[in-house]
Amino acid sequence: MSTTATNAVPPLLPESSPPTTVLAAFRRFVRWDGFGLLLVFILLYVVLSVMAPEFLTADNQLNILQNAAFFGIVALIMTLVIISGEIDISVGSMAALASSMLGVAVIKLGVPMPIAVVIVLAVAFAIGSLAGFVRAYFGVPTFIATLALYLALRGLAQLLTNNFPLPIPLNQFFYWGSGKIQIPVGPTSVFNIPVPAIYFVVLFIIVAIVAKKTVFGRSIYAVGGNIKAANLSGINVRRVKILVMALAATAAAITGLLFSAQVQSGNSTIANGLEFDAIAATIIGGAALSGGKGTVVGTVLGVLFIAALLNGMVLLNVNPYAQQVVRGAVVLIAVLVNVFRTRRSTVS
Amino acid sequence: MSLPEQPILVCTALTKTFGNIRALSGVDFTLQAGEVRALLGKNGAGKSTLVNIVSGSVAPDSGTIELAGNTVAWSGPGAARLGGISVVHQEFSLVPGLTVAENITLGRWPSVGGFLKSNELADRARRAIDMLGVNLPETELVGNLPIAQQQLVEIAKALIDEPRVLILDEPTSALNASEVETLIALVRRLASQNVAIIYVSHRMKEIPLVADTITVMRDGREVRTMPVTEATAETVASLIAGDSESVNISELRNRLDAPVVLSVSQLHIPGTVENVSFDLHEGEVLGIAGFLGSGRTELLEAIFGLRQDARGEVRIGGTEIVHRTPRKMLNLKVAMTSEDRKTAGIVPLLGIGENIVLSARSRVLPKGWLRATRESVLQENILRTLSIRASSAVQEIGTLSGGNQQKGVIGRALAADMRVLLLDEPTRGIDVQAKAQIYSLIRELALGGVASIFVSSELEELTQVCDRVIIIRAGRNREELVGAQASADKILSLVLKEED
What we know:
The complex is a heterodimer.
Chain A: H1 22-31, H2 35-51, H3 58-83, H4 91-108, H5 113-138, H6 142-161, E1 166-167, H7 171-178, E2 180-185, E3 189-194, H8 195-213, H9 215-225, H10 227-232, H11 237-263, E4 265-266, H12 274-284, H13 296-315, H14 320-347
Antiparallel strand pairs in A: 1-4, 2-3
Helix pairs in contact in A: 2-13, 3-8, 3-9, 3-11, 3-12, 3-13, 4-5, 4-6, 4-11, 5-6, 5-11, 7-11, 8-9, 9-11, 12-13, 12-14
Chain B: E1 9-18, E2 21-31, E3 36-40, H1 47-54, E4 62-67, E5 70-72, H2 77-83, E6 85-88, H3 100-104, E7 111-112, E8 115-116, H4 118-132, H5 147-159, E9 165-169, H6 177-192, E10 196-200, H7 207-210, E11 213-218, E12 221-227, H8 233-241, E13 260-269, E14 273-281, E15 285-289, H9 296-304, E16 311-316, E17 319-320, H10 326-331, E18 334-337, H11 341-344, H12 352-357, H13 361-364, H14 372-385, H15 402-415, E19 420-424, H16 432-447, E20 451-455, H17 459-465, E21 468-473, E22 476-482, H18 488-496
Parallel strand pairs in B: 3-10, 3-11, 6-9, 9-10, 15-20, 15-21, 18-19, 19-20
Antiparallel strand pairs in B: 1-2, 1-4, 4-5, 7-8, 11-12, 13-14, 13-16, 16-17, 21-22
Helix pairs in contact in B: 4-5, 8-18, 14-15, 17-18
């Protein structure tokens, strides 16, 4: 007390102590933005398992995880893009280009697979940087920049392959992209964990740490939440935007490589609509398109929600065209829920 | 209070002109460490320019700044911050999605290899919070805090670089009485830690409590600097207002006998306007005076149907209008021009002519088809009537001067044959000559029976344009000055008056 004699002014505002009790922690949990989504998610699981008995089997759940991983990898980075106030609608085309490039490099040019993968990812990183660059330095909205790439990259993929699949008959490649790891559970049954699901989980942990614990991650929130304040306080706003876009394209390329492995070819027709599922999962997960708001955990919930919904509709034999309608409706509802929630919190 | 001999900040002969407006002419300004200086003056007196120059956002045309004996020339606000001068602006620069601690240390996050050092970050933030002597929930997201606490975060953020001079620009404008007390205690506490503080405020009541000395500015000059103990409310008010400008009020007449076109009673907007009532007569120009944040803009917005949370009655020609929307009000011949001309007034990439006919199209073009000749006749008429200087009706309005843009905005109301104009700061940011033209335009319209509500922070112009001025203070309309009663002095002293 003696050392802080000049600071001995009584507290001027009531202290708001952090929740310590279980009850308070529970309240905090209920107040959490993703709580509503979690409830809806559980509801979906209950409904689907009642209507389709095979839904809740281990094999089917792992199947959901496999499908979730493909667009989930992109959705994780898309979350960072959207928090930074930008968007990337070219990820599907980027994935197709990555797949086509791999096919051409390995089959036509005889490049060893590991080197080809590195080249593909580097090219994707460069293309994403380009979109970020025109955004940061010329003010071209990323919606427009990536709309251009959406067309151009798909076209480039088709040019490279003549729109025919280039078969890549490598078993090991198939395993890394689409194989299963068998984990025995009990004497007779095994879990077949899909390899892509492992990538997804690992990337989830990495992105979650980046978003919460790194200067880059927090800068993304600052740039998306108040770009002027971020700029004035010396954050390199341009670098953040460029890097975020570069990472999104790279994630798209990874998904493209996984698709290649699954279909065992370099293929320019894959990943149609990838951008939709990735953006939809992010929005359902609570990220705001205006930037500054969103969580990686929310996005993972959104990814699993969409994957479970799609899987459930297939099991229930829902007309594929009707499935599209449902997907569209879900996104619209998610956005509306977000809007109402924001409105309520700004009024109170 | 014992002042050290060497002043911490010495500004000499600072001068700055913007275009043909002299914002600052030869201002000297000296500040001691640990001194709290209140900076007073009307809008446009030069306070902001002085603050901006000292804090590095604006470079002076001439003059010098010395900080602790060294001459400095800031390359920008960042340089000034590092050099020891921080500003807390009236608008917050916080990131709602980051925590309190992250906001306070924004852009100065300690890290190793890109990873935040959370403990050190929290320590730094806590040090700034401790300087303030308040409690803030460091891990809470700023977006979840009430405004008063956000203000404290903003101040803590300014303290992170351990400034020797701290500038607070209208720090209490968003705070209630008890929060103001907290803030004043906190400013005194910072001063006791030898920080020099420039305190810009319109609220006269808090000045004697917070400041050691005051500086009054007027027309870009420093008028007087004195200890706060010698400053009475009356002398300060007259120093701020200056010599009464010779205002031509002879032509203003009292139109209270004309029929009422717009009647507002017991208007209430949560958080800003408590209870405001008035009548607006045909052909009358009614001024509304009150400081920033007194609810002037919100009042106009409420009448125009832009605020769904407003309660109370609005009558047009005797009929109560409920569920007001801008579209409905426009149909009733009521138009509003926003104080934010650039974002809410004009469509910058359309021609001046097209901007003018924007709301008139349904009248000129009843069947929805564009009728080029009819439209262009109307456009040309209005361009001529308002003497708008444009190369042609198709010149993009965004490329015109502010004054001509504003005429275009008023012209839009004219083209649509409006009877009531709600004008929010119609002369903001335009030059003197254009201002005069806007005044006479509004007067001419009044002669034709158009009634206007004229909101302005510039008291002189209220006296020049308005038949009647009402003063809004603490959310209520308090006094009313008719015709010649409405001198700038009188308005100012009423605006500054404190409610008890």
